[in-house]
Write a structure and sequence with these properties.
The chain is α/β, with parallel strands linked by helices. It is built from nine helices and seven strands; from the N terminus they run βαβαββαβαααβαααβ. It is 40% helix and 25% strand. Helix 3 (84-94) links the parallel strand 4 and strand 5. The protein binds S-adenosylmethionine.
Length: 227
């Protein structure tokens, strides 16, 4: 994103504030702000980064003036927006220099979710696989979105991370708890089908007896404002 000392940064869809905290460590709390439509997430972000300007709002109507920030970013959010081009237009309106986003590669190398949805499709061919239903999650779609928003010097690429799990239960816990679209689907299943899904995931992961790691890939787009 080309952050520079003294920059002001806005995190759109900041959730509980992981990226916000990273921005604050680089730029100072007084130079970072976040918005998210979820009040509990906004509360968590405020307590994680005390002093940051975190507001309850959606990407489609960001409550900041034009050119308020040097850099405006959204992390793992584009596919959840109600009107993604409008959300990106708001990111560009509030940014003076740079607009950047990343999204999970739901259809490919995000192993945690791929294992889950491939197992779900095994027992239910109509399962709402995020690799099929999520938009704005391919490099081509991101590039088009960024160029149509009028951004220049557009770069698109991959960010790859490794996630560590203590054991299979550590992997399974968020699904069982109903977190995210995958968890909501899992929680909607009757007990016997949920158990069949759990066993299919366990098998697809190679029946891990202890700790293991999975890879997750996000696609990113970054572009510069023409002003
Ligand atoms: C996968 S989480 C990512 C959170 C955070 N950016 C992170 O990386 O940890 C998706 C976030 O998008 C937020 N969200 C959903 N719809 C949104 C919208 N229309 N505008 C902005 N954020 C939205 C959710 O509340 C949630 O915090």
């Amino acid at each position: 994103m080309g952050l520079r000392a003294g920059d002001r940064a806005l995190d759109v869809g900041c959730g509980p504030g992981a990226a916000l905290a990273a921005f604050a460590a680089r730029l100072g709390t007084e130079n970072v702000a976040g918005v998210d439509p979820s009040e509990p997430f906004v509360e968590m972000a405020r307590s994680r980064v005390p002093g940051a300007d975190v507001r309850v709002a959606a990407a489609e109507a960001v409550p900041f003036d034009d050119d308020s920030f040097d850099v405006v970013v959204s992390q793992l959010v584009l596919n959840f927006m109600t009107d993604t081009p409008a959300g990106v237009a708001e990111m560009c309106r509030t940014a003076r220099r740079t607009s950047a986003s990343c999204v999970w590669d739901y259809a490919g190398e995000t192993e945690m979710l791929r294992v889950f949805w491939d197992a779900a499709l095994e027992i239910d061919p109509d399962a709402p696989d995020e690799g099929r239903v999520m938009r704005w999650c391919s490099p081509a779609e991101l590039e088009e979105l960024w160029k149509r928003a009028g951004l220049r010097e557009v770069e698109v690429g991959e960010l790859v991370v490794r996630a560590e799990y203590d054991d299979f239960d550590d992997y399974w816990a968020p699904f069982r708890a109903g977190i995210a679209p995958s968890g909501a689907y899992c929680a909607s299943l009757p007990a016997a089908r949920q158990e069949a899904l759990r066993q299919a995931c366990f098998r697809r992961l190679g029946r891990p007896g202890g700790a293991f790691e999975l890879t997750a890939r996000a696609w990113f787009a970054v572009g510069q404002l023409a002003r």
